[in-house]
Amino acid sequence: MFEEEGLDGDEHGDTLCGACVDNYASDEFWICCDMCEKWFHGICVKITPARAEHIKHYKCPACSNKRARP
User: Could you tell me the pTM of the whole model?
Assistant: First the structure.
């Protein structure tokens, strides 16, 4: 669900932030949406590494705003 700094960035080299569309960098905190599986800079979605530790299933802002279909 979330990526700690210092991990190997080669695996995510083509990953873009779903909010700002900037490239992955291993020295930044990232979090993945469990619904759409897009990756986001923590700062772009206002999630800190400490807060992410308490989130079981992260939904990005777009997925959080989607309403369930009747």
Answer: 0.74
